[in-house]
UniProtKB/TrEMBL annotation:
This is Bifunctional protein FolD. Residues 7-115 form the Tetrahydrofolate dehydrogenase/cyclohydrolase catalytic domain. It comes from Acidaminococcus fermentans. Catalyzes the oxidation of 5,10-methylenetetrahydrofolate to 5,10-methenyltetrahydrofolate and then the hydrolysis of 5,10-methenyltetrahydrofolate to 10-formyltetrahydrofolate. Pfam families: THF_DHG_CYH, THF_DHG_CYH_C. SUPFAM superfamilies: Aminoacid dehydrogenase-like, N-terminal domain (SSF53223), NAD(P)-binding Rossmann-fold domains (SSF51735). Residues 134-269 form the Tetrahydrofolate dehydrogenase/cyclohydrolase NAD(P)-binding domain.
Amino acid sequence: MEPIIMAGKPVAEEIRRNLREKFAGKELTLATFLVGDNPAAHVYKRSLLKTAASLGIHTRDVELPEGASQEEAERALRALSEDSRVDGILPLVPFPRHISRMQLIQQLDPEKDMDCIHPINGGKLYLGITPWGPCTPRSCMALLDYYKIPLEGQHVVMVGYGEVVGRPLTLMLMGRYATVTVCRSRTKNLPAITRQADIIISAVGKPDLITEDMIREGAVVVDVGINSVDGKLVGDVSEAAKKVKASAYTPVPGGVGVVSNLMVMETLTRRL
């Protein structure tokens, strides 16, 4: 039986239709905040601004040079937070090494935080009192729901425990009564653990971390990893391994990443 390819495009199109209805006749402004020259952050920013424009959302692009001081960055972010014309702010990471992320993020209005990056919002997510988690984990959940992958009672192996994806996604999955085993890239006997999974989710950023022999026949694979190999984007799990062993899987590219931008826009609806 051919596996289900959990493509992001139809999920994104459905979200886009709903957002167009909600944003119709509304005046909203999304600000991106970037410090430094990180190429991936610049690519993501351009993609976000394009998505916002397609939905009729006004944008503001605040960009500081790599050498901007901690004080300059804090002043700029604080000014955005205090600007009543700005409805949402997305700080783009990583910041330059000399910038204290936690100290900088303290200047962000939690109500304008678009990616659950402020510690107050992270605390609310931990307590289960907010639906506005980070955008990439929410994209994973949207894909699982759209393709009707059951979570309750299922054994999910979460590979990767970073603050952007692994940690918040673990909380979301447990909130849906999944049984979650958290692994790291250095976990001993990782193949033995992943072979027990009904659902494998990998968010490490290491090509071919999950190989064919690590996937149980019929498991669902959600591949969040995005890696560049010989000029091509690949995930943490080889596409060949997914096709051979999985009953359903997200492709890379074309899976989780397609949905993430729209999750940023969806977060803006809390300002309506």
